Amino acid sequence: EAQVTQNPRYLITVTGKKLTVTCSQNMNHEYMSWYRQDPGLGLRQIYYSMNVEVTDKGDVPEGYKVSRKEKRNFPLILESPSPNQTSLYFCASRSSLGARNTEAFFGQGTRLTVV
Amino acid sequence: LAKTTQPISMDSYEGQEVNITCSHNNIATNDYITWYQQFPSQGPRFIIQGYKTKVTNEVASLFIPADRKSSTLSLPRVSLSDTAVYYCLVGEVMIKAAGNKLTFGGGTRVLVKP
To answer: Which of A1, A19, B36, B109 has the fewest CB atoms found within 10 Å of its own CB?
Structure first.
């Protein structure tokens, strides 16, 4: 089954404690992205990756890092989380090919609370 | 990327057809129109995509007039489980130049009542 898997689904952490949210896709997609979703602000892109070792900032990259060492994985790293990073996070992937390449596949989401 | 405008919310009843219109006056020649559905606390899910005229799949229909400045997502005979937020996105299919971003606007919150 084609899917994007994020872990963990829920996480409560304390300010300053480094954490990583993992994302893995099994569709051999080139493009992967991280979004955060906040009430009233919609979905905003944090970082994206066009392929292995190619990443770039989205609209709200401050306080986040990513890496793309393998095609299937795109972890989101919060080196020093702060309460304003409390949010619902989604990883997404999609193919670069074909007429349907605006069809993104999203993970189930990670609800992060930073206290 | 073309900006989109859609109603904030719509109410409907089970069994009715729901039509959500999205305006995208600045749509470019290479832009496709894509609709996503999102249930609470879940990731958005692709529904349908089109370029012009009409596209239909097992979930919905998408109507695009000749000038492509708007599009209408049609959900036939909705049920309670169709209660969700629906997003209209407009963007270039060959998106390398566009930086891989799918820009989600505010969406339309559809509430289906019994």
So the answer is: A1
Strand partners, A19: A78
Residue-wise pLDDT tens digits, B17-61:
999 999 999 888 888 899 999 998 899 999 999 999 899 999 999
The bridge status of strand B84-92 relative to strand B31-38 is antiparallel
Round to whole Å and give the CA distance between A31 and A48.
7
Touching check for A45 and chain B: CB below 8 Å?
yes
Residue type, A13: T
- Cβ neighbours for B61, distance < 8 A, ≥ 6 positions apart: B48, B54, B55, B73, B74, B76
Amino acid found at A16 = G
CA distance A25 to B16: 37
In chain A, what is the greatest distance between 2 CA atoms, to the nearest angstrom? 44
